[in-house]
Amino acid sequence: MKPGTTPTQAMSEVDVILRDLKAQPGFSSYMIMNNDGIVIKYENIEYKRAVQIAHLVLDLASKAKRAARNLLESPENEVESIRLKSRDYELIVGQSGNFTLAVVQNQTHHFPQASINRSGHANGKKA
After folding, report:
1. pLDDT tens-digit profile of 46-85?
2. Which family does it belong to (predicted)?
């Protein structure tokens, strides 16, 4: 929450962000959780599944932060978001303060993957 905003104003900011997310092509579901893993708000997903995802996402975020600190050797380099992409889905995770947002999108646009052949060429071109 921004300084000087009331909880009602902050909630309306969240509602605007969620409305914009839901308008994106491929939007499937979302969940908002606190950093204790308690699901506060969710849509297009069963509560039991949202709780399961919440715990896995928070564990992933914790491990990503630890790995970033070890790899990047700078305390200023904090993980702001995580984006996991599979063939069919994309999971986007963002943390702010004591809350985490996880959004699941269907992969509606499949881009051709470059393939490397045995001669070290990508799609017939030298890699």
Report:
1. 999 999 999 999 999 999 988 888 888 776 778 889 999 9
2. Belongs to the GAMAD family.
Question: Three-state secondary structure along the chain?
Answer: CCCCCCHHHHHHHHHHHHHHHHCCCCEEEEEEEECCCCEEEEECCCHHHHHHHHHHHHHHHHHHHHHHHHHHCCCCCCCCEEEEECCCEEEEEEEECCEEEEEEEECCCCCCCCCECCCCEECCEEC
pLDDT of residue 119: 54
- Nearest to 105, CA basis, from 50, 24, 39, 51: 24
CATH topology of domain 26-109: Beta-Lactamase (3.30.450)
